[in-house]
């Protein structure tokens, strides 16, 4: 083999090596681009779902002072129950993050059940139009909260799965993505059957 042929063969080998390296870099870049965009999409979906939960929780909390006033008109001596609901409402309003909000939410649901147990003892209250309207709004809000929780938790499941599966788990942390917490409810029966507000 002549020196020219050897030099040409070495040049071709170098060119092939360069093309292979370029191909690997392009494939890696495409993989990172697709992984990053997929994670951003899921993260935005989870943020949107959390925003929806906070809106529905706020809506429910806004109904509570009127509900307490309605019940107070018939059961003023039940001050312990009203204080408990008011305190649980304040804790829920001040809660930060998913875990703290879930804990406060569980306490609030328990306090709300006590309030409705009191209301159940007063037939005149159950016939009051203002109370009935508040009751209906609360039922509607409870349904929306349950739907928002399911939407949020499914978004978290998708995001956490994408972060944990191989080979995404090699890059997700470097790209700044972290797993999110589920909005867990202490009493799972309450998820399937929301706060009872029907009389």
Q: Which residues sit in consecutive blocks of at least 5 with pLDDT less than 50?
A: 191-199
**Major pleated sheet:** none
* Total beta-strand segments: 0
Gross morphology? rod-shaped
Q: Give the CA-CA distance, first to last residue.
A: 99 Å
What count of helical segments does DSSP give?
7
Query: What string gives the helices and strands in order?
Result: HHHHHHH
Summed over residues and divided by their number, the pLDDT gives a mean of 86
Helix content bin: over 70%
Descriptive overview:
The protein starts with a helix and ends in a 7-residue tail after the last helix. The protein has helices at 3-72, 79-94, 97-119, 123-127, 129-164, 168-171, 188-192. Helix 1 (3-72) packs antiparallel against helix 2 (79-94), helix 1 (3-72) packs antiparallel against helix 5 and helix 2 packs antiparallel against helix 3. The longest helix has 70 residues, at 3-72. With 199 residues, it is mostly helical. It is rod-shaped.
């Amino acid at each position: 083999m002549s020196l020219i042929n050897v030099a040409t063969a070495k040049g071709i080998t170098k060119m092939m090596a360069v093309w292979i390296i370029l191909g690997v870099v392009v494939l890696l870049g495409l993989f990172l681009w697709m992984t990053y965009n997929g994670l951003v999409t899921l993260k935005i979906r989870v943020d949107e779902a959390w925003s929806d939960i906070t809106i529905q929780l706020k809506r429910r909390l806004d109904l509570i002072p009127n509900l307490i006033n309605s019940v107070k008109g018939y059961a003023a001596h039940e001050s312990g129950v009203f204080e408990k609901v008011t305190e649980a409402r304040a804790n829920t309003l001040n809660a930060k993050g998913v875990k703290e909000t879930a804990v406060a939410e569980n306490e609030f649901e328990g306090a709300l059940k006590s309030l409705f147990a009191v209301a159940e003892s007063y037939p005149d209250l159950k016939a009051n139009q203002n109370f009935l309207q508040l009751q209906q709004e609360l039922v509607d809000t409870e349904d929306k909260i349950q739907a928002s929780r399911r939407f949020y938790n499914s978004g978290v499941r998708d995001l956490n799965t994408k972060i944990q599966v191989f080979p995404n788990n090699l890059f997700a942390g470097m790209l700044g993505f972290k797993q999110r917490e589920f909005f867990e409810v202490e009493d799972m029966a309450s998820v399937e059957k929301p706060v009872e507000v029907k009389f």
